[in-house]
Amino acid sequence: MISLLEIRNAVALNGRTDARSLSYQFSAPLPMVEAMLKQLVAMGKLEEVDTSSCLSGGCKQCPETQKCGSKIYQLPVKN
After folding, report:
1. Each residue of 21-79: pLDDT tens digit?
2. Please, are residues 46 and 20 in contact by the beta-carbon 8 Å criterion?
3. Furthest-apart CA pair in the chain: how many Å?
4. 34 touches 4 (CB < 8 A)
5. pTM of this prediction?
6. Can you spell out the DSSP letters for the chain?
7. Using CA atoms, how far apart are residues 74 and 59, in angstroms rounded to an integer?
8. Residue closest to 16 by CA, chosen among 64, 70, 63
9. Among 12, 19, 27, 75, whose CB has the most other CB atoms within 10 angstroms?
């Protein structure tokens, strides 16, 4: 069984990632990984990335439009 620390470390190593990728990486059920990510966000260990803005200026022009609907996570940005 995976731990919160393993999920957090995997996000740190990947830079940014989503629940589906982590679920595949750890061979863990997607709902469990999503719950763990939600807990890490609540604890302040991860943050959800705002995917509403795209580097190309809009998702209509983005070649990866399928990924825009998923939640992406990263380590918190320190100010």
Report:
1. 999 999 999 999 999 999 999 999 999 987 665 554 445 444 455 555 678 999 998 76
2. no
3. 40
4. no
5. 0.78
6. ---HHHHHHHHHHHSEEEHHHHHHHHT--HHHHHHHHHHHHHTTS-EEE--SS-TTSSGGG-TTTTGGGS-EEEPPPP-
7. 20
8. 70
9. 19
